[in-house]
Records
---
Amino acid sequence: MSKKFPFFKRKKEEVPDLEYEAVPSHVAIIMDGNGRWAQNKGLPRVAGHKEGVHAVNRVVRAAARANIDILTLYAFSTENWKRPKSEIDYLMKLPKQFLHIYLPEIMENNVRIETIGEFDALPDHTKNAVQNAIDKTANNNGLLLNFAINYGSRNEIMHAVKRLMNDIDSSKVTLDSLDENLFSNYLYTNGLRDPDLLIRTSGEQRLSNFLLWQSAYTEFWFTDTLWPDVDEAFFYQAIEEYQLRKRRFGGL
Ligand code: FPP
C-alpha cells in the first residue's frame, strides 16, 4: 500500500532512490531505553517511563500526520512481569496517565485505539482505562494505535495453536485447509497487515519476543536514541530510512 508523504525536506535528486510516494502502512516500535535515560540524569528508572509517555504522544501525532495506517507500540511484554513489583505497578498506571493527558488529542486526530496481548490478565484499573479508550475511539477511522500490552510472540503463537487445535477437534477447521493465512487469523494481530517497518530505540538489536511471526519480511531500523528523547523528527527520519530500502520479499 502506498501513501503520499508530504513532509520530506530532501530533494529527490539528492537521493535518487527515495520513493517519495510510499510510506509504510504498518510501523511497529520497541520503545526501549527509559531506564537508561533516567539513570543518565541521576533519576529513578520510573522517571524515564513517565517521560516516555510524552514520546508516545509525539510519535502518535507524527504517525497520524504521515498518514500511517497502523502504529503498534510494545508497551509491556510478557517478560516484563520479571521486573520489581514497584516498577510493574508504575508501568501498569501509564496507560491511564497517557490517556488522561492525550485522549482529547487522540480523538481530534481521528485515532482508534486497540490492543494485542493477554488483556484479561492486566490489573482492573489498567483494563478499565484502556477499554474506555477503545470504546471512545471505536468509530474513529484514521490511524490505528495498537498497544501491545502483556504481549509476547511465543505466548501468542501457543494460544493460536491451542485454539486452532480446538477448532480442528470440533471440525470447524480441517487440517487440509490450514495455511499461513488461516493460521494468522488465530494470532492477536488477526486482520492486521504485517509490519512494514520495525523500529527499536536505545541501541539494542533484538526482537525480544515481539511480532516474531508477523515480521518475517519487515524492515528493521535500530537506533541509539533513548525512547524519552524520541520526537516527530525522529519518526520522519525513520520513514525516510525505510524509503531507502529495497523490499524484495524473497524475490529479485
Ligand atoms: C523499556 O525501557 C520500556 C518499557 C518496558 C515500557 C514502555 C513504556 C513506555 C514507553 C511508556 C508509555 C506507555 C503507554 C502505554 C502510554 P526499559 O525500562 O527497558 O529501559 P532500559 O533498557 O534503559 O532499562
---
Amino acid sequence: MDRDLLKQYLEFYRDLGVKSVFVEPRTARASAAPSVVAAPAVVTPKVPAPVPPAPRIEVPAMSGPTEMPKLFASDFPVSPDNDSLVKIQEDMGDCQRCRLCKGRKTIVFGSGNDRARLVFVGEGPGADEDAQGLPFVGRAGQLLTQMIDNTSGKEGFAIRRPDVYICNVVKCRPPENRAPEPDEMEICGQFLSRQLMVLKPRAICALGGTASKALLGTKEGITKLRGKWHMWREIPVMPTYHPSYLLRPTSGQTAKREAWEDLKKVLHYVYDDPPRPLSDF
Ligand code: URA
C-alpha cells in the first residue's frame, strides 16, 4: 500500500480515538477487506496521548449510488485496548468528523444497560432524540418501548427497556430526517463498532434497512433480511422493521406481526434459561 494512503488511514483512526490497529495475516479475508487489513503484521501507530481535538473534515457531497461502507461491514478489528463506553464517548468529544455535526444540537450516543445482553441499533436520531440527547424517545421510540416491554412480558421475561442497550448507526441527526449517507455511516460506524465490541451482547436487533445494511454490509432490503439470523463478527443479528415504518398507516398488519415475531425470536434466544442454540430459533 502507498505510504501516504497508509498514513491517512492511521490518522483517520487516530482521530477516531483508535490507538491500535490489529492486522490479520493475508488470508481469504484479504479480498473482502480494505487492503490495509492485509498487511501481515500488527501495526501500532505512534500517537500522542491524549488524543488531540478532532480536526474538522470536509466531506464532499456524495453523488450517485455508492456501496455500503466496507470498513464497517468488514471484520476490520479496530478498537483500542481496554476500551469502554466512557472512553468512546470521550473520543467522540464534540465530534466534527462529518457534515452531520452542522445541524445537530446533541450527540446521541446511546442509552440503557451497559451490561445488556441485547442491543438494538437504529438509523439515527430524529428531532426528539436530538433535543433530549437520548435515542428512541419520540413516537418511534415509544413504540419500540412498547414492543420490548409487551413482548417480553407476554413471553414471561422480566426484561424491560432499561435492561437492553439502544443506539444508532449515526449519532447526529441527519437534516430533514434523511437517511445517513454511506460516508457518514462509515465515519460514525467506527464508534458503533466499538460500542458493540465493548458491550459484546448475545444478540443485536437491527431496526430497519439502514441499520441492517450498515451492520451486514449488504444492499439487500429489509423485507429479505428480516426474520433470519445474520452475523456481525461473532454476534447474531436479527434485522426487523424500523418502528417508524410500523407507525405508517400503509405498513399493514403483516409487517407488524412479523416485527413482533422477530422480536420474540430475539428475546427467546437471548434470555431463555437454559440458553438454547441459535439454530433453535
Ligand atoms: N429513529 C432512529 O433510527 N433512531 C432514533 O433514535 C429515533 C428514531
---
Amino acid sequence: MQAMDMQDATVSCPVNIAAPRARMVVANWKMFGNLALCRESLPRLADAANAKVELVVCPPAPYLGEVGRLANRSGVQYGAQDVAEVTHGARTGEWSADMLAELGCRYAIVGHSERRDRHRECNQTVAVKAAMCIAAGVIPIVCVGETMEDRESGNTEAVLAKQLNAILQLMKKNAVFVLAYEPVWAIGTGLAATPEMAQDVHAFLRRQLALFVPEWGESVTILYGGSVKADNAASLFAMPDIDGGLVGGASLNVLDLLSIYRSAMI
Ligand code: 13P
C-alpha cells in the first residue's frame, strides 16, 4: 500500500454528513447509461426527491460531472461506484476519495461483489477504501454478501461477519458509513431474497455492528440490494431492519426507480 499504512487508515469522519439511520434508495447504474439517461432522469428525480428518504445516483464515473451539474441544488445526492485505496499516485484509471469530494459526491460504493470478484478485491482492500472515503468526507456504502455456495453450506453468517469485521476494525466510533447487504446470488438474477430472509441477515448485521460500537446496531443505515424491483421493493422496505435499497437494473428506468423510491417512504 502506498502513502499510508493500515494504522494510518484508521480515521474518523471530519464532518457530520449524514443523519443516523437515514432511509435511502441508491441507484447503481453500473456500466450502463449515457448522457441522455443522465439528462432524462435527473430532472425527474430532482422533482421527486424529498428529505424523508435520501435519493442517490451512482452513475459511471465519466458522468459524475454531468450528474453533479444536473443534481445541483436539488435533493438528489450522487456518488461513485468505487474509489482508490490511496490518496494519489501513478494509478492509471483510478480516482481518489478527495477527487470525489471535490466533485460534490456525498457517497461512494465500496466492495461491490462485482469488484470483489472481477478485480479480486479482498476484505482488507475494501476496508481501506472505506477508510479513505471517510477521511475525505465521503460516506462509503460498504457492500457485503454471500454467494449461493456460502448460503447452501450454512456459511452465510460466517462470511458476512468476516467481511464486516475487516471493515469495522478500521472505523472510529464517530465514523459515518452505510452498509449494503447484497447477496451475490440475487444480483442481476431476478431472484431477490425474500423479505424475511433479508430481514434475518440485516438483524444479524446489526448484532455484529453492536459488538463493535453498541449504538451502531441501531444507528447504521443498512440497505438491501439484489433484484430490487418496483413490485418487491415495498415488502422488502417494510422490514424493520431494512432502511432502503441499492438498486441495479431497475434504476436505469426512471419510472421504476421513482416507484421504488416511493416504496421507501413509509
Ligand atoms: P440488480 O438490482 O440489478 O440485481 O443489482 C443489484 C446491485 O448489484 C446493486 O449494487
